[in-house]
Amino acid sequence: MLDEVSAFLFHEARLLDTRRWHDWLKLFAEGGMYWAPLTFDQPDPINHASLFYEDALLREVRAQRLEEKRAWSQQPVTQAARIVGNIMLLPGQDGQIVVTSTFHMLEWRRHDQRMLGGQYTHHLKREAAGLRIALKRVDLINREDVQDTLETFL
Amino acid sequence: MDVRVTDGIAGLVEPDRVHRSVYADPAIFDLEMERIFGRAWIYVGHESQVPNPGDYHQALIGRQSVFMVRAPEGGVHVLFNRCAHKGAKLVAFPDGNVGKFIRCPFHGWNFKCDGSLHSVPVREGYQGTRFDPGDPEFSVRRVPRQASYRGFVFASLAADGPDLESFLGGIKTSLDNFCDRAPEGEVEVAGGVFRVWQHSNWKIFFENLNDTSHPMVTHESSVNAARARYKAMNGEAKMPFKLLIIEGNGEPYEFWDKLEMVAYDHGHSYMGAIFVPPTDPVSLAHIETLKAAYGEARTQEILNIQRHNSIIYPSCSPHTSFQQLRVIRPIAVDRTMVEIYTFRLKGAPEALFQRAITYANVVNSPSSNVMPDDIEVYARCQQGLETEGGEWVSLHRDAGRDRPIAGGFVANGLSELPMRNQFRAWAQYMAVP
What we know:
The complex is a heterodimer. Chain A has three helices and six strands; from the N terminus they run ααββαββββ. Helix content of chain A is 21%, strand content 44%. Chain B has two domains: 42-156, Rieske [2Fe-2S] iron-sulphur domain (Rieske Iron-sulfur Protein); 169-431, Naphthalene 1,2-dioxygenase Alpha Subunit, Chain A, domain 1 (Alpha-Beta Complex). Chain B has 15 helices and 22 strands. The A-B interface holds A 36, 38-39, 42, 46-53, 57-58, 60-62, 64-65, 68-75, 145-151 and B 190-197, 218, 220-222, 224-226, 228-229, 232-233, 240, 242-243, 246, 337, 342, 350, 353-354, 357, 360-362, 365-369, 371-373, 375-377, 380.
C-alpha cells in the first residue's frame, strides 16, 4: 500500500512539475477539494480565508488561465521541481487512505527562484480507475508570512 | 534624477502628467516618508482586532513600527513599538496579547497599555540619577495624534493638521456605508488577513484601485478562463458567484464609463457602482435583516450607495459591497506590502460573511487568478519607469473636464480624475518642507 501511494504522489508531483494541469485535475475524485490553509491553527476553510480553497470549477479556471496567451504574469511561465518524501500512512476514515508527506518545491519565474515547502496531506479514495484525491491539503511552512503570488498549484 | 529633487518638487507634478522620478527615485521615496506618511492620517487597524484588554495589533506608519493596544479601562492606544530603555521592539507578532503590562523582553521594564512606565527592576540603582519615571522619555512614546471613525483607527505622526473627520471629508461616506450595511451598524475584522508583496511603488497600486480602463486588458487571462468555464457548464442559467467576480473585469469600456468617479481633497476617491436589485438568496437574506433593523426606506437608502473601490489616501482602500479592506504599506521605492482584511457585518446572516471569504479567496488571495496579472504589470511599470525611455507618465484621459463638487470633483467612469486627484494631494504634502 505504501508503495502504491508513494507512486501516486510521485506521479502527481511529476504532472505538476511538467505543467500537465488537465491530467492533474483528473486525479481528483468527484467533489474533491484542494486546500492550503492561511494560518497555523486554521479551524476550517469556510469561515476563514485560505491561501487556496478550490473545488473542481476553480481548479479548472486556474488551469485554463495558466495557459492563456495573455496571462502577463506567465511570460515566461513558472517552472517548478518538487521533491516529495517522508511519506507516511495515517489511519483513514470512511474507506479513505490518509497519507502525509513533506515536500520541497523549487520554483522559478524570470529572475526569481524561490523555495516553497511544507506538508502535504492527501485523503485518497480507491476508485475503479485507481486512487483519486478527495482532499489535498497543503500546509506551507511560511503560510502566515507576506507572500509573493502563488499562481500554480502547490 | 536628483537634480529635479533639488530643483523642487513642484516641477514633478503637472495637472495632466507626472514625472517618472516620483515612482523611481529613492530620494523622493525618503521625502514621502517624511512629508506624506509623517503627516497624513494613516490607517492603523480596526478596534475589533483588539477586543480584550492587552490585545495588540501591529502596523506601519511610513517607516515607523507602531501597535495599537487595548487598555484594561477599555480605550485603545497607538504606541511606537520601541522600549524606552534600550530601544528593543516590544511586540513581535502581527497580532497578540501583551498580558497585564507591556513587558520588554530585554531587561523587563514594564509599561501600562497607555505607554506610561509601570516599573523597572532594581529601582534603587536609579536613585540620584536623572532617571525620572514621570518623564515621558521613560515611557513608550505615543503617536502624536490618534482618532477613530466608526471603529477604524487612524494615527498621525504630526502634532498639527486637520482632524480625522476633516481629513476624510467626503470619503467618510464609504466608511459610513460599510458600517450601515450591518444591521447592528458595526463591522468587525474576521477570517484572517492576506499579506502580499508588490514589486512596485505604492502609488502605482493606489492609481490602479480606481483605474477603470485596465480590467479588460490586464485581466484578459482570468476573464477568458472564467468565461470558458461558464460556457462549459452549459445549461446553467446563472454564472456562479466565484466566476462572476472574475468575469466582471471583462465588461466593455461603455460599462465602466457610465460609472461615476468621485474625488475628494487629500487624495481620496471612489468609483461608483450601479445598483442592480439582487436575486441571489445570500443578498436577499441580508436585505431582510437590514429591513428588520432599519425599515424599508432607510434600507433602500443604504443599498442605493453602491461603490467599487474607495480610496483613503495614502493608506487604505475599502470595498464595501464585499466587505474587504486593503491596507497599503510602502516598504521601499520599488516595494509595497498590501494587507487584505475581510469584515463581518454584525447582525447580518453568516452566509454573507462566508461569501466575503469566498470573494477574498478568489480575488485578494496571493493565489488569486486575478491579482498576478496586476502585480506583473505594476512591476513592469516600475521597471519601465526606471529607464530613460521617457520622462513623463500620462494622466490625460478626460483631463480638464473634472466637474467641481463640495470638497472635490466628479467625472465620468473612464476619467483619470482619481490619479490627478492623488497627485494634487501628493504635491500639496510634498511642497511643504
